[in-house]
Amino acid sequence: MARILIALGVLLLLAGLAWPWLARLGLGRLPGDLLMQRDGFTFYFPLTTSLVVSAVVSLLLWLIHRL
After folding, report:
1. Full-model pTM
2. In terms of DSSP H, where are the helices of the chain?
3. End-to-end alpha-carbon separation of the chain, Å?
4. What are 45's strand-pairing partners?
5. pLDDT tens digits for 24-67?
6. Which DSSP symbol is given to 67?
7. Is 30 in contact with 52 (CB distance < 8 Å)?
């Protein structure tokens, strides 16, 4: 359990450090990401971004497992 928590912490740290670079790729502003703005209220749900990230992570895990 400790190894999993350490690995997740390292992954979160790397994602945080890479965030400015990832923002330049346009993640979070893809067609299909939901954005609703009203007076004093903003709702944002990155649907398409979530699907793309999920597909990439699944592909990477599948490739790692095949090795």
Report:
1. 0.65
2. 2-24, 47-66
3. 23
4. 34
5. 887 778 899 999 999 999 999 999 999 998 999 899 889 888 87
6. -
7. yes
